[in-house]
Amino acid sequence: MTEGHAKTIAPDEVLELLAAACPSFLARWEELRADDSYGPERLYPALGSFARHLVTLLESGATGEFAAVFDVVERLHTEGDSYVQEAATVGLLEGMQNIAGASSSRFLPFLRPQTAMWWHELNRFWAGEAPHVGAGTKQRPS
Asked: Fewer CB near the last or first residue (10 Å), C or N of the chain?
């Protein structure tokens, strides 16, 4: 675990952490939270919304929040429970790659070490170089 953070990140904490790191997402986060159908079990669709937001920021050159955002994404990979870790990879990173398409490599300078590893594992999987995401690591399976 990262120094200064003692507990495991649970699914119901993910969007709160991301919204705190990315104030430009707060209005959308409030909309999601106000929806009666929102709950931790809806984490993947919420991460899809956050992925779209990040791609919009990237495309407009508004990357000022990215340092804080990707610090949180790294924490999701290193401090999250198994569901959060998988959602950070398959829900968020894969969403960013799919939405950004060919320009997704523009995110690379912002990725922290574990996040970058899982980003590359997704690429290996989709290139047919791995039977599943995480096959090339000695880390958690995804």
From this structure: N
Q: How many domains are there within the chain?
A: 1
| Residues spanned by the domain of 68 | 11-126
pTM of the prediction? 0.90
140 in any annotated domain: no
Q: Enumerate residues 6+ apart whose C-beta is below 8 A from 66.
A: 54, 57, 110
pLDDT tens digits for 48-91?
A: 999 999 999 999 999 999 999 999 999 999 999 999 999 999 99
Asked whether residue 3 is assigned to any structural domain, the reply reads: no
Flag whether 131 is in a domain.
no
Q: Give me 19's structure tokens.
A: 């919204």
Alpha carbon distances (Å) from 20 to 17, 107, 128, 132, 134: 5, 20, 36, 32, 29
142: in domain: no
- Alpha carbon 128 to its chain's center: 22
Length of the chain: 142
Q: Are 96 and 107 in contact (CB under 8 A)?
A: yes
pLDDT in tens, 106-136: 999 999 999 999 999 999 999 999 889 988 8
